[in-house]
Design brief:
With 73 residues, this protein is mostly helical. Helix content is 60%, strand content 0%. It contains four helices and no strands. The longest helix has 23 residues.
Length: 73
């Protein structure tokens, strides 16, 4: 094992990482095309469809392992 020596030149927000964090906090939130699309009502359909598909898969898996549908839910 070796030895080393370090000199602290800044802590917290005075470090380079702290400066980056400060710059990130100052950026305004902008609405991207993707965030606009996620707010559209058509995507609610796909969210519900995904939940139904997952539920069906979980129930089928439970039945294949010998459980009832209710216990799989």
């Amino acid at each position: 094992m070796g030895r080393g020596r370090g000199v602290v030149v800044g802590t917290g927000m005075q470090t380079e990482v702290g400066k980056i964090a400060d710059m990130i906090q100052q950026v305004d939130d902008t609405e991207t095309p993707m965030s606009r699309r996620l707010e559209q009502p058509g995507l609610k359909f796909w969210e519900v469809a995904a939940l139904i598909i997952c539920t069906v898969i979980i129930c089928c898996r439970g039945v294949l392992y010998g459980n009832s549908i209710l216990s799989s839910l």
